[in-house]
Amino acid sequence: MTLDPSDTRSSQPPTGGASPSPPTVPAIPEGAAVEDPPPVGPRYIWLMVLAQFGVFVAFITPIAISLAIRVEQLAPGNEEYLGYITGAGASVVMVFGPLLGVLSDRTRTRFGRRRPFMVAGLLLGVVSLIVMAQAPTVPLLGLGWILAQLGWGQVLGNLQFSTADRLPESQRGKVAGLIGFATQVAPVLGVAVAGGLSRNNLLLFLVPGVVGVVLVLLFVLLVHEDDSRARTFAEPLTPRTLLGKYLFDPRRYPDYSLAWLGRFLFYFGLTLNTTFTAFFFASRLGIGVQEVSGIIAVLALAGVVATTVGALGGGFLSDRLRRRRVFVSASGALFAAGAVTMAFAADLPLLIAGSLLSSVGIGGFAAVDQALLLDVLPERETDAGRFMAIIGFATSIPQAFAPLIAPLILAIGTGPGEDKNYLLLYTVAGLCTFLGGLVALRIRSVR
């Protein structure tokens, strides 16, 4: 596929005299007709896919395996610390996410609104990886993960804001499918790399980080973003108005609210399912946590084809058929089936079967739910970053609280010295994702 040279155009600064202020764009109610932006070229699509792939290699590898290895090194036998660390990082994102989204919307530079935040996030993200690799204590490991959430989270967030700015409806499913596939394959690569570097903490974190830095910089340097210095806003940003932007009226945006709820339920189940993956596999297979990284990598590789079917199939078909809800609902049900299969698995073949079903569900949900979100996103022209950040609560709240709740579920029905109750944990996870898919069926403005 050839690259579109139009994506390399440079912005022209104002010349000679004062340029008139553009009119302020009023808020557009949910469901009102909004003019679509023009289609993007292949350059934008492929560099966006690669950039998000890179962020996930750098950012998700710690969740998948690296943090578990470090927790085991620093506090053997205390896997609950992993839940506290991931929960603390997600809590910080909840506080700062909408603030950073609003600031991105209102940033005025010759380089645009989104790219400055991507560069700043990259710098902080690299620092976070070094802190996690070298941390001598669990609290410092937790601090490193908080920095990672703020840094890499800002890179990922502004890449997603860019899709809200640039993608027309006819391309949202396809692009979301490609991104969904790439961001699910990325942890596979990350875990495979981590499996070979598990005895060198610095390389364990920095090698995936280098992949992320290189691929994001390609997007920052090669994709044009309009000069934003001439933008104007209806109201000044004060502490009071800023706090107000953390909230929205569900009655005014009912479909956006349902999209938020469905994503919350799905990611609550997903977080319950994935936070303790390394410990779960070690328990079921009777091996150590460090030894399990290679097995998880093999299982993840087996899910690549399933993820491709879910992400690309769901994304492309949802555009072609102009239907989102049925694909989101089916994805939630498939993930639930995979989680329950894993819950009852006592050997490797059943673990593989459950993993494959879950991979189809994750891929389909990640792609089609993202396209559905862009379809119902309110006030896209003025507040895309704000509403994309608020939808981020639907991911960050589960990431904050599910790891704290999971140890309580794991302890139900067990006594001192007994195995954790992974059966109940994975069953609850499946129920949450199933309900998350059902919520999408109540959305009315999207088929």
Automatic annotation (TrEMBL):
Keyword Manganese: no
Source species taxonomy: Bacteria, Bacillati, Actinomycetota, Actinomycetes, Streptosporangiales
Major facilitator superfamily (MFS) profile domain ranges (all copies): 47-447
UniProt KW keywords: Membrane, Transmembrane, Transmembrane helix
Membrane topology qualifier: Multi-pass membrane protein
Name by which UniProt lists this protein: MFS transporter
Chief location of this protein within or outside the cell: membrane
Domain of life: Bacteria
Region (Disordered): 1-33
